[in-house]
Amino acid sequence: MIHLPLRRHLVGPIRLAFTLLGLPHTVWTSGVSKTISAVNTSYCRGHSTMPSSAGPHVKSRCPQYPGSNIKRLSVPDDKVDWTQKWPEYNPVSYTAPSVLNNPAWADPDIGSSSPNFNTVDGAVDRTSFEGSYKVENGKPLNPCGRTGLAGRGLLGRWGPNHAADPIVTRWKVDVKGAKVHHSVSQKPVLQFVSIKRKDCGEWAIPGVMRGLGMVDPGEQVSLTLQREFSEEALNSLSSSPAERAEIHQRITNLFKSSGFMVYKGYVDDPRNTDNSWMETVAVNFHDDLGNSVSELPLEAGDDAGQVQWVDLDSSFPLYANHSHFLEIVAKERKAHW
């Protein structure tokens, strides 16, 4: 536990860097098994968790591909599913120059390599949370259907690109420390750590961005998040070794409590294409007493323009399907939404 005098003399804020927190091993064990079983972890099968009634993966069919002037072929709702015949379907193929430059986090182009899909392919996990996906002409097909764009876009991997999203929450309190209740719902208000993405200007849940959202294969997501926090946050503190050790111990103790698995599956992300798509595991870590995460100063990292605590509310617009994740958290915590 860090005492107040030490907190006052911390030199340099803790750097968020698009990944904020690590989750304990108990997130994935019996401590939350009852909670996990209550969550539908499939995004594509039956489209049962889709937050929109307009059709499957709406943001994955945005008219203009992000970060480019590339226009998607418009895909009507009734033609999204690959089983629907559409012989005229001929989308533009686009892979961003940043991906074609062959960074370490990206695959080579098809032809110069032959990935083994639906399996752990060497150092790359090409399995999908949505089950086995089809491969056509050597390229994987998006399990949620057509997007109007072929290629990889901004994503490094052919097929699933795995990410992990920590949803960090606390109760909103007044000056006396009492929970604030919403005037309409009369339910207590939750706040979550949100970043404003530089690439699109939208607010989002902080997520692991090793190689544009990659989670290292064979590594538990809990370890990925904890490693990211240690690398990106603790290393930015200009404090003494003794202070660093005490801060690290405080954070380690914080993460021993259980988390709540919110979602596991396909993400309706505007970067998705017919051949590359985002998948994630989203876990809620809640600072119930407001004396751990809530006290850490936040500073946006390279991928975030701003970072702040934001009230959970259905009217707050968020990136991809992050609103859907937060709605699940609000219901689980019996909070306002």
Automatic annotation (TrEMBL):
Does the record's keyword annotation contain Signal?
yes
Pfam families (UniProt xref):
NUDT9_N
| Enzyme Commission numbers on file | 3.6.1.13
One example of the protein's molecular function in GO is:
ADP-ribose diphosphatase activity
Q: Does the keyword Secreted apply?
A: no
- The family this protein is said to belong to: Belongs to the Nudix hydrolase family. NudF subfamily.
Name of the protein in question: ADP-ribose pyrophosphatase, mitochondrial
Organism, as annotated = Neolamprologus brichardi
Organism lineage reads as:
Eukaryota, Metazoa, Chordata, Craniata, Vertebrata
